[in-house]
Amino acid sequence: MNSKSKYTELIKTEAKRLGFLSCGVSKAEFLEAEAPRLEKWLNNQMHGEMHYMENHFDKRLDPTKLVEGSKSVISLLLNYYPSEEQNKNSFKISKYAYGTDYHFVIKDKLKSLLHVIQDEIGDVHGRAFVDSAPVLDKAWAAKSGLGWIGKHSNLLTQQVGSFYFIAELIIDLELEYDTVTTDHCGSCTACIDACPTEAITEPFVVDGSKCISYFTIELKENIPTEFKGKMDDWMFGCDVCQDVCPWNRFSKSHKEPLFNPHPELLSMSKKEWEEITEETFQKVFKNSAVKRTKFSGLKRNINFLKD
Predict the structure, then answer these.
(1) Strands, E assignment, 223-306
(2) pLDDT band at 120 (very low <50, low <70, confident <90, very high)
(3) Of 125, 136, 159, 163, which has the fewest Cβ atoms less than 10 A away?
(4) Torsion of the alpha carbons at 140, 156, 94 and 221, rounded to the nearest 10
(5) 213 annotated to bind ligand
(6) What is the dotted CATH code of the domain comprising 3-88+95-171?
(7) Cα–Cα separations (whole angstroms), residue 205 to 89, 121, 180
(8) What is the residue-averaged pLDDT of the chain?
(9) Which long-range contacts (CB under 8 A, 24 or more apart) does 201-209 make?
């Protein structure tokens, strides 16, 4: 076994030990196919008020501009599918936000993986990324053979669907690279048909400025009144396009204790959400991604749903 194969196997074995669902590797290079897509998406104003998406265009497409001397992008998936879901007759929160903020959980795992790489292999440099830097996570995961991009623009995997986080380690070590997998969406349009705000404008294209996740998390101004009655009771994020996807029949519950929700979150009724106090908000969402929207943002979303 040559050193590239040996190092790649070591990294994938360690990723599994750390609890990652899967690990794939691709060459750090310019994402040629993504460049025109990203440019068109931005030109069509599909990022809405997410102005940060306009920044670092070159770095988004070329990891060697983001991490000097980088040779490999290691893509990792971490399952977050819950064993229990919220009370059905309540305002809804996206499943990914049930437990501790994934940024903290995954960052720690990535640091551990990088330390093992450095201890076992030697002088390897790199950076860990969890959805908070100009990295096209889904494109890299697809390039690394971990799944294909579905019509809802999420990464899909035959064995486990799409309820997982994507993260990367970009390092200056050459490894053995994986090959892309095939698309298995076929003629299915379940996600497009089910989107409450018609945000999936065509297969593989999501107009972010019409997405419920954008309205309830990213948008700082008032939610446009034209979307009244179309929010499907989502007060933080939205899972509709994933919930209806046939491949998510194969989702299995995660094994990460930190992703378990506060017990109150699952049982709260609409009335309880409407009357939520800042104290309850802090207790139920301690260390949660829901903190992004703040108490005032969550109240705004709830009021929009109930009025």
Answers:
(1) 234-236
(2) very high
(3) 159
(4) 50
(5) yes
(6) 3.40.109
(7) 31, 41, 20
(8) 96
(9) 203/151, 204/149, 204/150, 204/151, 204/153, 205/41, 205/46, 205/153, 206/46, 206/152, 206/153, 207/44, 207/46, 208/46, 208/47, 208/48, 208/50, 209/45, 209/46, 209/47, 209/48, 209/49
Q: Is 191 annotated as a binding residue?
A: yes
Residue range 236-269, pLDDT digits in tens: 999 999 999 999 999 999 999 999 999 899 999 9
Q: Tens digit of pLDDT for each residue in 140-153?
A: 999 999 999 999 99
**In the numeric block, which tokens belong to residue 212?**
């419920």
Ligand-binding site membership of 60 (annotated)? yes
Rounded Cα–Cα distance for residues 68 and 66 (Å): 6
Tokens of 72: 């490999």
Tell me the β-bridge partners of 120.
Answer: none
The verdict on whether residue 188 carries a ligand-binding annotation is yes
Residue 23, annotated ligand binder?
Answer: no
Q: Residue 76: beta bridge partners?
A: 23, 167
Angle between helical axes of 3-17 and 102-121 (0-180°, round to 10): 140
Q: Report how far residue 108's alpha carbon sits from residue 295's, in angstroms, rounded to the nearest whole number.
A: 27
Q: Taking the CA atoms of 204, 140, 166 and 281 in sequence, report the sign of the dihedral they define.
A: negative
Q: Which of 103-107, 128-132, 191-195, 206-210 has the lowest mean pLDDT?
A: 128-132
Give the separation between CA 19 and CA 252, rounded to whole angstroms.
Answer: 14
- CA 176 to chain centroid, in Å, comes to 25
Q: Where in the chain is the domain with CATH 3.40.109?
A: 3-88+95-171
If we measure between CA atoms, which residue out of 3, 12, 256, 259 comes closest to residue 113? Answer: 12
CB 71 within 8 A of CB 171: yes
Q: Which two tokens stand for residue 51?
A: 């102005």
Catalytic residues: 131
Alpha helices (H) along 133-221: 137-143, 190-194, 212-213
Structure-token pair, residue 86: 């919220």
